[in-house]
Each structure stands twice: as structure tokens, then as C-alpha cells.
Design brief:
heterodimer, A: alpha/beta, 10 strands, about 20% strand, elongated, B: alpha+beta, nine-stranded antiparallel sheet, six-stranded parallel sheet, 31 helices, globular
Chain lengths: ~270, ~1000
């Protein structure tokens, strides 16, 4: 079994190249090989390939480049499975398209089809020298999310980053999963309830998603979840937001879309 | 506690098939007239023997067929009978051996002789039946009861056959069984306990019928739920003195409640349980809280919900083998530790129930291998926690574990655990690692030590052995396919300022309990619970979920109180969790105490006395706040000092000051209200003179000093927090002012009462407290001048000065929601709104119902109920109560369900830190004062029922001024309410 890799698809655009510092950082953190993939109908000599995708020789330290033919999305997904990949790091857009779309066509297809988490990088952000110091984990309090966000917690642990867990109290019915923990229904005496609730929340998270020595902070927001996630991400200067996604897109995932669209840092999408 | 025992012989006794599962019959004298045959055979024996003995040695005094038989032989095993009777004649014989011929002058010889004489008479004369016995047996079976014969006779089978009753009893325990199993004869409880075990019923749910004094004692000692003395010979008073609850001369006078009320009996627990444990779960599902399977993240909730406690010791229901989310904790009531702080918290004792099991070196844990099934059951009726777990380890070995745990209600120093282990598809070496002997100590920063000591007994098949002394920590045993190993552990807990003393006491208590045996401990415990339920159960017909919730509430309340200790009270989460640090709030006095006052006055007294013993701290706090009298702690631990944290860091990062210690002043009136309620309901004048009057005086003084004159000519109480804690530093909070006014008026009344009835005591008290001559008159005047906030035009009481001017937010626009409204809207907006956390004005209406006219009650309910966000777990039950009293049936039922769900709902997570003891007390009050409409007046208790849809009947007992009252309300048009003293 090969070591799972960090997969970075590059199509030769400057926008795609914006994900490189993030992919490199993940490769270092995960101690994983960085595999750069270019999909092209015609195989190129290596020097031309590097030039084509915009890499410098120094960018290939700890990385390798390969090219595949065919449909870009299908080739990326195939490579992700074959390598296998621990993460796919990909720009949200690389070609000028409809600005109303939150994701470009390739990124969307990869997100929808990947078996591993996908880190979405907004090419408009300048992420040169990107480092992982704070990770934001929005969390509804369900065991399923605790399970899904293990990769986010793991990367925080490896980076020695602080993990900020955010639960947003919103006017909605409690999640149906057994063992979920929403904000306390009854706050009899806040001086006792808040510490107990916070400890319980983190214990429930930690029993599913081992936190080990990670420095964890629990925050409770209120109102629209997307606005709160973006607010906290901005105020706390987070470097990565870990979001779960149920795989449904049309008329769903409003929070996910809004955060990916407006986040000022990469977003790790984890399918649940 | 002389709790009323159902049914009373003053009326035709009615046996409720719902609460009993089996009837055990003595044979001779109850079912058959073999007593006459036995008596005659004994006479033949002793007259022949004594005559033979008299000739050479002493004078002959013939056997007295009536007296000698009744006093020395009736109900006793044959050998005992020989010994006891002969001892009464000053004769002692050697025991001889079991095969001694009838002519041998030994105990065994004479016993054989008597047996031969009896059999000859039986063959010659046959056996007669009492005319009432067979019809009664038939009715018992028709009512769904299981039946057993429990006889000391080795001839029971022959007698039953001769009487034509073969096959009519489910089980027979006779003299042959007793000999084979080494069971002690009556009056020891062994044979009755064995019969219950064979039937698979718990003793507390069994009825025993006996005509003999030794038999009655045996049934009582076995902890049966009902002891019926059958008086065939005019010795009813003796039967009562020896323990009969009910004495009947004729079995036809015993009636059964309609069999239709009986539920289908669930299948008994699995074979391991049946084979090994001395007690089984109560079969009626209305008494059980059940959790099947395993959800890791719910463990903390379940540990709280399934906790066991006895008012002194409380222990969370953590998995014995531990797990990722296990949070075991055992508490000793009143044992607080200042460290690690910042406020004192109940000390957590060493984990007595931890048990590590390995099979062939592999640990048996939920996380290793595959859980095939798991069921946890809290048996409310018996106060027992059950767990049944089947597990397949990674090697494919399937093991069944059955565990029970209890905190003895009969002896509050004891905890007990029994674990049965059955290899289902393998044989192998099993290692049990558990604390044996001295389990450890917990020493607080104040220098108090709690010590735990254990005694264990391992049973493999029919063999049992104590671990060697000094008890080791590991037991290694070869486990055979299909054979059950059982380990019973008795743990004693003692506390002392000296560690050695605590350890010695704990060891001694554990040793003593072990000497008496686990069956005895279990029977005593179950008997104590049965006694409690006789006094405290509340039956609801027509709504099983409500029934279970109310019993769950009563279970945790009964588990939380200890009538033997006036120095402790009940914390917000009782003894079930670490949350709230064990601190005591107004929860106890206002929400829990009514349950105790009316069903367990001894416990209520101890709780109120805790406040008396902490008066000194309350006086000191008043002085610190520039007031007189007693200002009780908002949060109190062992000393009565206020231990409320001064700030909290909320999860939004905001550091919020906590002003409750200084501002939530109504606590003093709440304590006064509790003291008054206890005295008023019990008539305990000793309490009034020793403590109650002083509490009322000191709290009245506090209010007199706290109120200040205003420009309007009235007096005002400013800068407080009422029960609605969303609004701080308010003036003239309705609840605070209303209760202060009541406190002042009641203290005035009590001062007058004591001065009139016990003038010397009043003089002493006045002198001791330095009461000025005109102080009492000032209280009455202050009460009359206190601002009430009542608008006579609208009937509305303004919750506090300026409340009606705040933003009126439509709460329904935020429903449904998954968070408290103050979290959603933020603290500042909430404080500027009319949304309230919990009832304030409505709380006042509830406590002082008769002080307000109906139109005021309804107007305020309609105004405040829609504005209440129920941010407190105390809120829904009180709304249910008030809504029910106002005839708002649908609302009342909705609030009641909300209150029921606080701990029992599957998915709330609220109970992780412990059950909400006050909400449980509120739930009971909602049923009793709301739905049953109980009102307590000088003339006695009365019901004005408002039963919700689906409830066909509510029935409960209360004690009112020393007398037991059985109360029931039936929902049938027209609704009927009855109250009578048995």
C-alpha cells in the first residue's frame, strides 16, 4: 500500500496555481508526498509540462508531477482513488465562467465524486506562505459530524494549530441523531451550566474524534450559521475552515455554499 | 416511619394485582387442616416419649394440644420443633444423625418418629381443606398471580396430593428443599426468599399468607410486599405483633382489584440472571426505565438517569468495565471539598464499582469485539440498577454478563454490586480485577476522610468462597462453558475526621454486612423501597408515559433524601452528577420539599433543619449586606456560606458577572415558606419551637430591614433578581415582594401563636434573639405597606417596576428553537424585553393561590405564560400546575410533557451532569396540586381534579397532620373526587 498522497490538480492557469502553497503545506504537515496532476490530451515532455502548469523547479521539492489524458474531472477522481489520496487540494475556479457559480465545473465534480476530503482554495486569496495556526470547526453537535471532522482535527494536531469549535444556536429543531448535543435547552444557572455544557460538548467530540494534545476552544454563536462562521473566521484569523457536506447541492447546503463563496481562507470539505 | 400499609384490615382488604406478582401460601393451617393432623401426631409423639421418660426420671406432664402446639411447634420444621418443645420442658437431646430410627432418643430419632405418626394419620384420616382456601387460590390465579406453597413439612407433596391440589401451585418449597439447600427454617426468611426466586418474582412484589407466628416473621423478614396473617384460632393480635400487615379470619374477605388492570408479564431475564442473582427486575414496565443498545455520546446522560442513591450515598451508573465516555462518580452527601475550587464541590469518592474482566488475557470491553445485546434497566420499584450484556470478543468468545447495583435504602452505609458471568460458547481462564478489602479513601481539604471498604464473595456453581484475607485485587477462575460465575461485592462507606477511624468503621460495616449475607442485604433494601413506595407512590391510569415519568421523579427524590441527617440537603442535581457542585438552591424548599412534606415528613424535617443549622451563616451574610436577620445563601454547601460563583465565561467568550448571591434575595422567604409549610402540614410543634419560629423571625427581620419607604407612602424592595433571572437589579420584583410580605405576615402570626401557647418559650426566644418589643408590630405594618404591583383595574401584577414598558417580543416567532432565547437574542436585548426565563408572578400565584381572586390568576396567566421562554428547567412544571388549576387542560398537558422530557427525553443532553431534581419535584407538584387539584386547608386535604385527556384516574397517599389520607380522582363524567382516611 502506497502512502496516501496530497493531490493537486493544475490546469496551467494562474488561478489553479494559487492552491500550490496550501497543498505544499498539507504535504509537509501530513508528511505525505505531493502529487501534482495535469490533465492534457497530449503528453508533454517534463520540462514543457512544468512550464505549462506554471511551476518552478524549486516547487517540486518533495513533489512529483504526472500527466493524464481525458476529461479533467474524471482523471482527477481516478487519480485520487488510484494513488490513493489523503486530500485533494483544488482551486474553486480556474477558468472565467459564470461568476454566480460558487465552484467551477471541475472543482464541483471533484468535490462531488471524491472519496477523500477536498480542500477548496479561492484563487482570489493570496496564500503565499500559508501556515496553519488556527482551524475552525463549525459543529452542529451530532456524532456524525464529530466522526467526519477527524481529518480536520488530525491536521490541526500535526500543525500544532489551535482548534476553534463553533456551534451556532439557530432557531431550528434539534438534530435527530441520538447522542447529539445542541446548546443547552435550559440554562438554569449559567455559572454552572456553561462550563458543564462546554466540557460535555468537548468530551462528546473527543470520544469520537480524538483531540489528544490539541488546544481546543469552544465558541457558541447565534443567528445565521454562515454569517457566524465567516464572522468568527475573520475575527479569529483562522487559516482553515472544516465544513461537512451531505452531498446534496441543488436547493441545499446553503451554509456550505455561502462559506465557500466568501471565506478568506481555504475550506476543507468533508462528505458525510 | 409508620407508613400506611395497603390494604388496611379496617376495610375489606383489596389486593392490587398491578403491584403484586405472586402469592405464597403456607400449607398447614392456611390451605389444609393438616395442622390438626400435625398437632395430633406431635401429641402422640411427645405423650409417648415424655411418659417413657417420666417413668424412671421425672413426673409426666401431658402435651397441651392447643398451647404447646401453638407456642413451640406450629410452623416450625420438624427438627426445630423437637428441640424447641423439649427445651420448654427442660430436656436436651443429642442431635443424633439423619438416619436415626424412630426409637432412638435423639432429635433426629424423635423427628422420624413424629413423621411416621403423621403419615399414619394422613393415610388413615386423609386431609381436610379449609372451605375458603380453594376458591381463594382460584381467584388469585384468575387475577394473574403466580402461586407457591412454602411449607416446613417434608410431607408437603403428600399432603397436597391427598388434598387433591396436585398441580394447583406453580412452585413448592418444602422441608426437603430446605434440607437440600441448607435453608434455615421459619422464622428465618430463607424458604420464602427461595420461593420468590423460584417463581422469578421480587419479594417486595409478593404476598405471603401464614397462620403461624414463626411464618409471619419469616415473611416479614423476607421483605414481602404484604404479610397476611390468617387467624384460624383467635390469635390475630399475636399475628399482628409478629409482623402481619393484615389479619383475616377468612380468605374470602381478601379481594382482588380487577384483573383487567394487570399487564402482560414480560419474559423474565435471561438464564444467567435467573440462575444466579438473588433478585429479579420488577416485571411491570411502569416501574422500569430501559435503555437498549449503546450510544457512546449518551453515556453521561445515562449515568445520571440510571444513578442509584440512598440519600447518603449516590453513585452514577457508569459501566463497571469503564469506557471512553465513562464518568464514574460516587458522592457522600455533605462531603464537600474546597479544592480544586473556585467553590466547594461534592467530593468524588473512589470508584467502588469498577471491575476489569479479562478472558484468556483479553479484556472484556464494549470497545473490543462486538456487542451482541445490551440492556440497562433502572428498576424504580426496587431501587436497583440492572445491566444485561452479551458480548463477542475478537476471538469469537461469547460472554453474558448480568449485573445489579444498589445503594441500600435499609442501611445507608452500604453499596452492593453483583455480577454474574457466563461463558456461552467457550471455557477459559477468567480474571476479575476489582477493589476488595479497603477500597481507598477520599480526604477533603478540610481534613474529613471518607473511607470505602469492600467484602466480596465469589460463587461458581453451588460453591462459594470469600477471597482470602487480606483480600486481593484479582480473582482468577477457570470458567466452564455454560456455567455462571458470580461475584458479590458489599461496599461500606464511612466518614470521619480521622482517616483511621473512617477506615476501621468502613471495614467493620462491610464485614458485618457480609456476615449477614447478600440475600439479606437485598431483601432489606427492597423492603425499604417497598415501604417508601407505599407512602409515596402516585398512580396514574391511562397514561403510561406520565406514570413512568412521575415514578422516575419520585424515585430520584426518594433517593436524594436522608431523614437521619439534618446537616445535609439536596443539591440541584441530587447525588447523580458533578454539575452544580452539589450546591443547594431554593430548588429544595420550593420545588422538592412539598413531596417530602406530604409523603415522607421525616425527610422533610431533616431538610428544613439543614436551613436551621445554617442560620448562623445566613445571619452573617445579612450583616455583610447591611441588613438584619437572615439572608440565606443563594448557593449553599455544607456550612451555609454563600458559594455562588461570581462570574461565568460564556461560550461566546463574554465574561458575565453573576449577581445572584447579592440579589436573589427571595431565597430567605423561600426558606421561611418551607419551614412554615412543614409545620403547617405536620403539626410538628417540636420543630416549630426548636427551629421553625426562629427561621421565620430571622427572615422577617431581614425583609423588614431590606424594605425602604418611598415617596408614594409605600415600602419598596429595590435592586433584586426575582426567579426570572433574565432581569437583574430590578425594583419591586413581584415574587420577592409578595413572598416577603407573606414572610412578614406569617412571622407575625407565628410570634403571636408561640407567645400565646408557649409563653415561656417565646420569652426565651425573644431574649436570645434580642427581639425588640415593637419589632413584631413593625413586621405587620411593613407587610401592609409593601408595594404589590397589582393593577386593580386589569388584575395584572407588574413583574417589576418598569416591566410593562419593555419591548414586547413575540416569542412564538422563534419557535421551534434549539437554544435558550437569551442565547439567540443576546443578553442585552433580553434584559430590555418582557421575555422571562421562568415564572415569577405565576410562581407567586402558585405558592399563595388563595391570596388572589380568580380573575387575577387568569389575567396574569394569560399575560405571562406567552412571554415565558422556559429558559429554566423549573419552569414547565409550574406552568403545567397553574394551567391545570385554571382549567387550561391542553396547555397544562403540553407543559407537563415538556417537564417530563427534561431528563427522560432521548436527545437533550441535559442530564449529563445529573438529573434535574427540582424539575422532578415540580413534576410531582404539577400532578398533585395541578391535575389532582389538591388543596390543603385547616379542614383537611381536598381534591378539585383537572385530569388531562387520557388520564382515567390519579391516586396517591399523603400524610396530613399525622394521619394518612388516600386520595383518588377519577375522570369520568362527572369527575369524582374522594378523600378518605383509611
Amino acid at each position: 500500500m502506497k502512502d496516501p498522497a496530497i493531490l493537486l490538480p493544475l490546469d496551467g492557469s494562474k488561478a489553479a496555481l494559487g492552491a500550490l502553497p496550501v497543498a505544499q503545506a498539507f504535504a509537509r504537515l501530513e508528511d505525505a508526498p505531493l502529487r501534482i496532476l495535469h490533465v492534457t490530451p497530449q503528453a508533454l515532455p517534463i520540462d514543457q509540462l512544468i512550464t505549462r502548469v506554471g511551476l518552478r523547479p524549486s516547487d517540486l521539492k518533495g513533489a512529483s508531477v504526472e500527466q493524464r489524458a481525458g476529461d479533467p474531472s474524471a482523471a482527477i477522481l481516478q487519480a485520487a482513488r488510484a494513488l490513493p489520496s489523503r486530500l485533494v487540494v483544488i482551486s474553486t475556479h480556474t477558468a472565467p465562467g459564470s461568476p454566480a457559480d460558487i465552484l467551477g465545473g471541475t472543482a464541483f465534480t471533484v468535490l462531488r465524486g471524491a472519496d477523500c476530503p477536498v480542500v477548496l482554495v479561492n484563487p482570489a486569496l493570496n496564500l503565499t506562505g500559508w501556515r496553519l495556526r488556527r482551524v475552525l470547526l463549525p459543529h452542529e453537535g451530532t456524532p456524525a459530524i464529530s466522526d467526519a471532522i477527524r481529518p480536520g482535527a488530525e491536521v490541526a494536531r500535526r500543525a500544532g494549530a489551535e482548534l476553534i469549535v463553533l456551534q451556532v444556536a439557530a432557531g431550528a429543531a434539534p438534530p435527530p441523531d441520538r447522542g447529539s448535543l445542541t446548546p443547552p435547552t435550559y440554562l438554569d444557572q449559567p455559572q454552572h451550566e456553561w462550563p458543564v455544557w462546554a466540557a460535555e460538548f468537548l468530551e462528546r467530540l473527543g470520544c469520537i474524534c480524538p483531540l489528544g494534545s490539541i488546544q481546543v476552544r469552544l465558541l457558541l454563536g447565534r443567528g445565521d450559521p454562515a454569517i457566524e462562521i465567516l464572522r468568527v473566521a475573520g475575527e479569529q484569523a483562522v487559516d482553515l475552515i472544516v465544513l461537512t457536506w451531505k452531498g446534496e447541492w441543488q436547493n441545499h447546503a446553503a451554509t456550505f455554499k455561502a462559506v465557500v463563496d466568501a471565506a478568506s481562507c481555504p475550506v476543507m470539505a468533508v462528505r458525510i | 416511619m409508620d407508613a400506611p400499609r395497603p390494604p388496611s384490615e379496617r376495610r375489606s382488604p383489596i389486593i392490587e394485582a398491578r403491584i403484586f406478582d405472586a402469592i405464597m401460601f403456607d400449607l398447614d393451617g392456611v390451605v389444609t387442616r393438616t395442622a390438626e393432623l400435625h398437632a395430633a401426631a406431635w401429641r402422640d409423639l411427645f405423650d409417648a416419649y415424655l411418659l417413657r421418660r417420666a417413668a424412671p426420671r421425672e413426673s409426666f406432664r401431658p402435651f397441651d394440644l392447643a398451647e404447646d402446639y401453638r407456642l413451640y411447634l406450629d410452623g416450625r420444621p420438624r427438627h426445630d420443633g423437637v428441640r424447641v418443645f423439649l427445651a420448654s420442658r427442660g430436656v436436651t437431646l443429642p442431635e443424633g444423625s439423619q438416619g436415626d430410627a424412630p426409637d432412638r432418643e435423639t432429635v433426629n430419632g424423635l423427628a422420624a418418629w413424629k413423621d411416621r405418626l403423621f403419615r399414619e394419620r394422613l393415610a388413615r384420616e386423609g386431609v381436610a381443606l379449609f372451605a375458603d382456601s380453594v376458591p381463594f387460590l382460584r381467584r388469585a390465579r384468575d387475577a394473574g398471580m403466580r402461586t407457591a406453597i412454602v411449607s416446613s413439612s417434608r410431607n408437603a407433596a403428600a399432603v397436597i396430593a391427598a388434598a387433591g391440589l396436585a398441580g394447583q401451585f406453580d412452585v413448592r418449597v418444602d422441608g426437603n428443599d430446605a434440607a437440600a439447600l441448607k435453608l434455615k427454617g421459619k422464622p428465618a426468611p430463607d424458604t420464602f426468599l427461595h420461593a420468590a426466586s423460584k417463581l422469578g418474582v421480587v419479594p417486595a412484589r409478593a404476598i405471603g399468607l401464614e397462620d403461624a407466628l414463626a411464618g409471619v416473621e419469616a415473611i416479614r423478614a423476607a421483605g414481602y410486599g404484604l404479610v397476611v396473617g390468617v387467624d384460624r384460632s383467635g390469635h390475630g393480635d399475636d399475628l399482628r405483633r409478629h409482623g402481619a400487615d393484615v389479619v383475616v379470619q377468612d380468605l374470602s374477605s381478601l379481594k382482588f382489584a380487577p384483573a383487567a388492570a394487570r399487564r402482560r408479564r414480560p419474559k423474565p431475564a435471561g438464564p444467567a440472571t435467573r440462575a444466579m442473582l438473588a433478585v429479579l427486575p420488577t416485571p411491570d414496565p411502569d416501574w422500569l426505565i430501559v435503555e437498549d443498545g449503546f450510544t457512546l455520546t449518551r453515556e453521561h446522560e445515562l449515568e445520571s438517569i440510571f444513578a442509584i442513591a440512598n440519600g447518603r450515598l449516590g453513585s452514577r451508573a457508569s459501566l463497571a468495565e469503564g469506557g471512553t465516555m465513562s464518568s464514574p462518580a460516587t458522592f457522600l452527601a455533605g462531603l464537600f471539598d474546597e479544592e480544586p475550587g473556585p467553590t466547594p464541590a461534592l467530593a468524588v469518592l473512589p470508584d467502588w464499582s469498577a471491575l476489569t474482566i479479562t478472558v484468556e488475557g483479553a479484556p472484556l470491553r464494549l470497545s473490543e469485539g462486538r456487542m451482541l445485546s445490551q440492556r440497562r434497566v433502572l428498576d424504580l420499584f426496587q431501587g436497583v440498577l440492572w445491566r444485561d450484556w452479551r458480548h463477542e470478543d475478537p476471538a469469537g468468545r461469547i460472554t453474558r454478563l448480568s449485573e445489579l447495583r444498589l445503594a441500600s435504602l435499609a442501611d445507608r452505609a452500604l453499596l452492593f454490586q453483583s455480577l454474574a458471568f457466563t461463558p456461552e460458547n467457550y471455557s477459559g481462564v477468567v480474571r476479575l480485577t476489582a477493589g476488595m478489602g479497603e477500597l481507598g479513601i477520599r480526604r477533603t481539604s478540610a481534613g474529613v476522610t471518607a473511607a470505602l471498604a469492600a467484602r466480596a464473595r465469589l460463587t461458581a456453581g453451588n460453591d462459594s468462597a470469600d477471597p482470602p484475607e487480606p483480600a486481593g485485587a484479582e480473582l482468577t477462575q477457570d470458567a466452564e462453558l455454560g456455567k455462571t460465575l458470580r461475584i458479590d461485592r458489599i461496599v461500606a462507606v464511612a466518614g470521619s475526621r480521622k482517616a483511621e477511624t473512617a477506615q476501621a468503621q468502613a471495614s467493620r460495616r462491610a464485614r458485618q454486612a457480609a456476615a449477614r449475607g447478600a440475600p439479606r442485604l437485598i431483601a432489606d433494601h427492597c423492603g425499604a423501597w417497598a415501604d417508601r413506595w407505599r407512602a409515596s407512590d402516585l398512580r396514574v391510569t391511562g397514561d403510561p408515559a406520565a406514570q413512568r415519568a412521575l415514578r422516575f421523579a419520585a424515585y430520584h427524590l426518594l433517593s436524594a433524601a436522608n431523614p437521619e441527617d439534618e446537616r445535609v440537603s439536596i443539591g440541584a442535581r441530587a447525588l447523580t452528577g458533578r454539575a452544580y457542585n452539589g450546591h443547594i438552591f431554593w430548588d429544595t424548599e420550593i420545588f422538592m420539599l412539598p413531596f417530602f412534606v406530604l409523603t415522607w415528613p421525616e425527610a422533610a424535617r431533616a431538610l428544613v433543619m439543614y436551613r436551621f443549622h445554617t442560620l448562623a451563616a445566613a445571619r452573617a451574610k445579612a450583616a455583610r449586606h447591611g441588613a438584619s436577620g437572615a439572608f440565606y445563601a443563594w448557593e449553599s454547601a455544607d456550612t451555609g456560606e454563600d458559594v455562588t460563583p461570581s462570574f461565568v465565561i460564556a461560550p461566546d467568550g463574554v465574561v458575565a458577572p453573576i449577581r445572584l448571591a447579592a440579589q436573589e434575595q427571595h431565597i430567605s422567604a423561600d426558606v421561611a415558606y418551607a419551614a412554615w409549610t412543614y409545620w403547617w402540614a405536620t403539626g410538628d410543634d417540636g420543630f416549630l419551637l426548636e427551629a421553625g419560629a426562629e427561621i421565620l423571625v430571622e427572615t422577617a427581620r431581614f425583609w423588614a430591614s431590606r424594605s425602604e419607604p418611598g415617596d408614594d407612602g409605600l415600602r419598596h424592595i429595590r435592586g433584586v433578581v426575582g426567579p426570572d433571572e433574565y432581569h437583574e437589579t430590578v425594583d419591586d420584583d413581584a415574587y420577592t415582594n409578595g413572598m416577603a410580605r407573606w414572610n412578614l405576615q406569617t412571622a407575625t402570626r407565628v410570634a403571636g401563636l408561640v407567645a400565646e401557647r408557649w409563653p415561656e418559650r417565646w420569652r426565651d426566644l425573644s431574649t436570645r434573639l434580642g427581639l425588640e418589643a415593637d419589632e413584631v408590630a413593625d413586621w405587620a405594618r411593613t407587610a401592609g405597606e409593601l408595594y404589590t404591583g397589582l393593577d386593580h383595574r386589569t388584575g395584572l401584577i407588574e413583574q417589576f417596576d418598569g416591566y410593562f414598558g419593555l419591548e414586547d417580543i413575540e416569542l412564538s416567532a422563534f419557535e421551534p428553537r434549539n437554544a435558550p432565547i437569551d442565547v439567540l437574542l443576546g443578553r442585552e436585548r433580553i434584559q430590555a424585553s418582557q421575555l422571562i426565563k421562568q415564572p415569577d408572578v405565576l410562581m407567586l400565584l402558585h405558592l399563595l393561590w388563595d391570596s388572589f381572586p380568580p380573575e387575577v390568576r387568569i389575567a396574569n396567566f394569560r399575560y405571562y405564560a406567552p412571554r415565558c421562554a422556559h429558559g429554566s428547567s423549573l419552569s414547565p412544571a409550574i406552568h403545567a400546575l397553574v394551567a391545570a388549576r385554571l382549567g387550561e387542560d391542553e396547555l397544562a398537558q403540553r407543559y407537563f410533557r415538556q417537564a417530563s422530557d427534561i431528563d427522560l427525553a432521548d436527545n437533550m443532553g441535559n442530564a449529563a451532569g445529573g438529573v434535574h431534581a427540582a424539575a422532578l419535584g415540580g413534576l410531582w407538584q404539577a400532578a398533585v396540586f395541578g391535575f389532582a387539584g389538591l388543596s390543603l386547608r385547616e379542614a383537611g386535604p381536598q381534591l378539585h381534579p383537572n385530569l388531562p385527556r387520557g388520564w382515567r384516574e390519579i391516586a396517591f397517599r399523603i400524610r396530613w397532620r399525622g394521619q394518612a389520607h388516600e386520595l383518588e380522582a377519577v375522570s369520568a363524567p362527572p369527575e369524582v373526587a374522594q378523600a378518605h382516611a383509611p
